[in-house]
Design a protein that fits this description.
By secondary structure, the protein is an all-alpha fold. The protein has 12 helices and no strands.
């Protein structure tokens, strides 16, 4: 095609030169192309050759137009392919980013559900704390009424009760305070409000600290806790719950399990269970205590009996 275009261009140059010279002037100009086949010395047959050249030029022009149309078609086809590839890539990117957005949305929803669950748990603990506070206030009011009637021992005076509650509720209770806490428990065993607060402090000190657990067992803490449960077996479950939970922590200790085996403690715990079958706050904790004690055969026999 390029060769034909070159021939057409050469032919146009020849025709143009012939037209300028009027067909009667001998050409002596040297061209970079071969015009000998077209010009033989002079343009003897100039008009005929011009007509043939024009026809040839029209033919080449038609082919050139066809070639241009073909180039346009090829260009449009190539552009269409490029657009299709771009569209496919855009779809791939869209699906990719859409999937990432879905993952982030799912993660956000999961975190929201987790926060909602924690919020509900916090509300539950707050409600439980408020209920315990109301019960403690009721216990204090009852105790004050007994003080006015002179029906309370001197060791349970109002000042003594306030001091015990303030100490047990302190945020700075540490292992070094265990002796004092056990002392308060033995001194105020008839006051469930104080016993509940003291046992809550003991529970916090015995979650994972084996030394604190052993110290409480050595000081007779399990015996005192059982006495509290036996003394107040008909009391409100919310006040008994910290007492049971402190006993539960202690029974993870080998010394506590051995103490129960030697003293029949498992039987006493089973008795507490029997008296609190209708008290869900106490029932679960007592069953957990029995489960810990049941690692020893003799304790299992006591529970069964």
């Amino acid at each position: 095609m390029y060769g034909k275009l070159s021939q057409a261009r050469d032919l146009c140059d020849v025709v143009g030169i012939w037209a300028v010279d009027g067909g009667g002037i001998q050409l002596e100009v040297a061209y970079s192309f071969d015009i000998n086949p077209l010009i033989e010395g002079h343009f003897g047959n100039g008009p005929d050759r011009m007509t043939a050249s024009l026809a040839k030029l029209q033919e080449l022009s038609g082919k050139l137009s066809q070639a241009r149309d073909l180039c346009d078609v090829v260009g449009i086809w190539a552009f269409g392919l490029w657009m299709a590839e771009e569209d496919q890539q855009n779809q791939h990117d869209f699906h990719k980013y859409s999937g990432q957005a879905d993952e982030r949305a799912a993660s956000a929803e999961a975190k929201l559900q987790e926060l909602s669950a924690k919020h509900s748990q916090a509300d539950g603990r707050a409600a439980d704390a408020e209920a315990k506070l109301e019960l403690l206030q009721a216990q204090m009011a009852e105790l004050q009424a007994k003080l006015q009637q002179g029906n309370v021992p001197t060791e349970c005076s109002e000042e003594s009760v306030r001091e015990a509650l303030a100490f047990a509720a302190g945020a700075n209770c540490e292992g070094k305070h265990i002796d004092s806490l056990i002392g308060q428990l033995g001194k105020h065993i008839s006051n469930l409000a104080i016993c509940s607060q003291v046992c809550a402090a003991l529970e916090n000190l015995t979650f994972i600290d084996v030394d604190n657990q052993s110290r409480i067992v050595d000081l007779g803490g399990i015996e005192l806790i059982l006495k509290v449960l036996e003394t107040h077996e008909d009391a409100d479950g919310a006040l008994l719950r910290p007492v049971v939970d402190s006993l539960w922590n202690l029974t993870f200790n080998v010394k506590a399990v051995e103490w129960a085996r030697a003293t029949g403690g498992a039987r006493r715990v089973a008795s507490v269970l029997a008296k609190n079958l209708a008290t869900p706050d106490v029932l679960g904790g007592v069953c957990a205590v029995l489960l810990n004690l049941a690692v020893v055969d003799e304790n299992r026999h006591q529970i069964v009996q």
